[in-house]
């Protein structure tokens, strides 16, 4: 069988939403009115902390696909003021969110125990609040949310190969700014800042999804102890440490791009390592110069820069049965599935979606039951299911 990234078609039922005249769709999607619809038509469960579990109306997979969103639409009306990454979430909210993650991941691995039969992934992407609301590619809901997805491997094997030049597949590979010019210092910085017990660095060949060959060129860490380790709060502290290290690296780099020989950014998590590893590294600073020079000469390129940290952080299981964590520069705004070499083409087909819907909803309601039992929220009634 030929290995490489896959492109799959996933049917969905057209969303019965009318965007008010004079508004662009992504402006409306970020409004409280749209989030109301998300709750009332697709909401499964909500916690007192405003964490909302919902059915994905425009999903990646109709096998299993759901999200948890930190729904601050009623409490923070400014879309640009809402939390867009884990480090911005209050501790007590993040603690509940992590417990919800554990239950969902355990369910997915219990339901799909064979790694040869199902690709299981959980991940989140930053919704960079520096992008204008009307910019192409801006996420449709500008609030922190994560995804829980299962792809049947048979479907991926039958799917046609994706175009390897698809820009959404290049983010973590050889075209990535981080990997092309700063791979060594990127990895050295992670080694310096991380104090890990559960997450263990893993070789590239062992970390890939063998069918697709992705992720490409990214540092990856195996979860020592597998799914049981997720119940240890230490895992989530280490998971957060990866993000904090990435944020320091990203912010320091683009600060140097913006201003030559700038001081280290304020409020870094690892200030000593930033100064010692990054600000005295010629590859790091030389790459910043390349990007700065191009920004000055190329207006279109400069406009595409995401000056504030943008990332994808994913937990996934590959065919070897290894549970792996990785984090990637999200310079393009691509989906977390594309980090693993899966390009999803959404197709409007209500009849095809209706055939898959009963089994999907049955699973989502079972997950909801387990969350309620663990005192992680209460059910929501919609026209499609009861509370």
Which features does this protein show?
38% helix
Largest sheet: 10 strands, antiparallel
Judged by helices, strands and strand pairing, the structural class is alpha+beta
Mean pLDDT equals 89
Query: How many structural domains?
Result: 2
Question: Describe it for me?
Answer:
The protein is α+β, with helices and mostly antiparallel strands and 387 residues long. The strands form two sheets. A ten-stranded antiparallel sheet has the order 7-8-10-9-5-6-4-3-2-12. Strands 1-11 form a two-stranded parallel ribbon. The protein is globular and about 60 Å long. A hairpin with a 5-residue loop joins β9 (311-317) and β10. It has helices spanning 25-29, 32-42, 91-111, 153-158, 177-181, 183-193, 204-207, 233-258, 271-278, 282-297, 299-304, 336-339, 350-373, and strands spanning 6-12, 43-46, 51-55, 64-70, 118-125, 145-152, 199-201, 220-223, 311-317, 323-329, 342-348, 378-379. The protein folds into two domains: 1-163 and 332-387; 171-326, no CATH class.
Show the helix and strand layout.
Layout: E1 6-12, H1 25-29, H2 32-42, E2 43-46, E3 51-55, E4 64-70, H3 91-111, E5 118-125, E6 145-152, H4 153-158, H5 177-181, H6 183-193, E7 199-201, H7 204-207, E8 220-223, H8 233-258, H9 271-278, H10 282-297, H11 299-304, E9 311-317, E10 323-329, H12 336-339, E11 342-348, H13 350-373, E12 378-379
Parallel strand pairs: 1-11
Antiparallel strand pairs: 2-3, 2-12, 3-4, 4-6, 5-6, 5-9, 7-8, 8-10, 9-10
Helix pairs in contact: 6-8, 6-9, 8-10
């Amino acid at each position: 069988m030929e290995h490489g990234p896959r492109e799959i078609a996933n049917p969905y039922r057209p969303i019965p939403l009318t965007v008010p005249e004079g508004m662009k769709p992504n402006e409306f999607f970020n409004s409280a009115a749209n989030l109301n619809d998300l709750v009332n038509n697709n909401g499964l469960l909500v916690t007192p902390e405003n964490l909302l579990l919902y059915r994905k109306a425009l999903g990646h997979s109709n096998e299993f696909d759901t999200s948890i969103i930190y729904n601050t639409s009623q409490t923070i009306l400014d879309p640009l003021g809402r939390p867009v990454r884990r480090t911005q979430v209050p501790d007590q909210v993040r603690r509940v969110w992590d417990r919800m993650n554990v239950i969902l991941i355990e369910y997915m691995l219990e339901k799909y125990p064979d790694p040869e039969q199902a690709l299981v992934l959980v991940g989140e992407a930053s919704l960079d609040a520096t992008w204008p609301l009307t910019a192409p590619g801006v996420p449709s809901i500008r609030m922190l949310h994560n995804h829980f997805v299962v792809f049947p491997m048979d479907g991926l094997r039958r799917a046609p190969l994706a175009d390897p030049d698809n820009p959404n597949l290049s983010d973590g590979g050889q075209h990535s700014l981080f990997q092309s010019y700063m791979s060594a210092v990127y990895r050295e910085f992670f080694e310096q800042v991380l104090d890990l017990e559960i997450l263990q660095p893993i070789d590239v060949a062992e970390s890939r999804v063998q069918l697709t060959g992705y992720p490409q060129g990214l540092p990856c860490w195996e979860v020592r102890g597998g799914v049981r380790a997720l119940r240890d709060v230490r895992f989530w502290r280490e998971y957060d440490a990866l993000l904090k290290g990435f944020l320091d690296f990203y912010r320091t780099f683009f600060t140097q791009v913006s201003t030559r020989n700038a001081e280290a950014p304020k409020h870094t998590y690892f200030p000593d390592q930033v100064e010692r590893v990054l600000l005295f590294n010629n590859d790091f600073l030389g790459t910043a110069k390349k990007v700065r020079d191009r920004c000055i000469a190329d207006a279109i390129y400069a406009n595409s820069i995401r000056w504030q940290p943008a990332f994808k952080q994913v937990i996934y299981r590959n065919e070897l049965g290894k549970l792996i964590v990785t984090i990637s520069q999200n310079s393009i705004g691509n989906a977390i599935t594309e980090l693993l070499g899966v390009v999803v083409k959404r197709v409007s087909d209500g009849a095809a979606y209706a055939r898959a819907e009963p089994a999907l909803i049955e699973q989502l309601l079972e997950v909801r039951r387990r969350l309620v039992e663990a005192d992680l929220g209460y059910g929501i009634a919609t026209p499609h299911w009861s509370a």
